[in-house]
Amino acid sequence: MRRVEPEPVPVSIPFVVLDVREDGTVAVTVDGIRLDPEPFAPPWRRSSFGQIIDRATDDRTTPARVEVREADGTTFTDIIAAQRRRAPDPTPDPEKPASRPVFQTVEGDGFVPGEDIAVAVVTGHTDASGTGTARALIDPGRLGSDAAGGVVEVVLVGRISGATIVRRLP
């Protein structure tokens, strides 16, 4: 029987502070030490939240306490948990041939002949605010084949016609 070792628990977790400025840029510190974007990269912005957390937590291998201080004085605090480390895939059996990907067809009507069609895999859902705007935080780890909790949805959007088709894959 294989013994599973528990994940080591850090004595303290990093404290990440994001100070959001009026212009939407963000100043970041980790345990009081300034964290800047990569050289030649644009300044941190709200949309950089995932990148900031990845850098501050060593690609989410460590939990962190995060405090977001908005320009209007409001503050939001949360704990970002470390992601579980998955065991590496076992080496394939040399006697079995490598499996090939299984392709599925998604079809829909109502498009202009020859128009460009955008194809998107749904990774989650969000609600529109009271002003009609929507914001989605995309977790790159959820872009696998079961991104929507076991159900994969595909959206086809016509760039000229505006026709939109949503299909669930079996």
Structure description:
The chain is mostly beta strands. It contains 1 helix and 8 strands. It has a 5-stranded mixed beta sheet, with helices on one face. A 3-stranded antiparallel beta sheet has the order 6-7-8, with no helix packed on it. A hairpin with a 5-residue loop joins strand 7 (152-158) and strand 8 (164-169). The chain is flat, with a radius of gyration of 21 Å. The two termini are 37 Å apart. Residues 82-101 are annotated as: Disordered.
Summarize the structure.
With 170 residues, this protein is mostly beta strands. It has one helix at 49-56; strands at 15-20, 26-30, 33-34, 64-69, 75-80, 117-121, 152-158, 164-169.
Please name the defining characteristics of this protein.
170 residues; 1 helix; five-stranded mixed β-sheet; flat; mainly beta; three-stranded antiparallel β-sheet; 5% helix
Topology:
Layout: E1 15-20, E2 26-30, E3 33-34, H1 49-56, E4 64-69, E5 75-80, E6 117-121, E7 152-158, E8 164-169
Parallel strand pairs: 1-4
Antiparallel strand pairs: 1-2, 2-3, 4-5, 6-7, 7-8
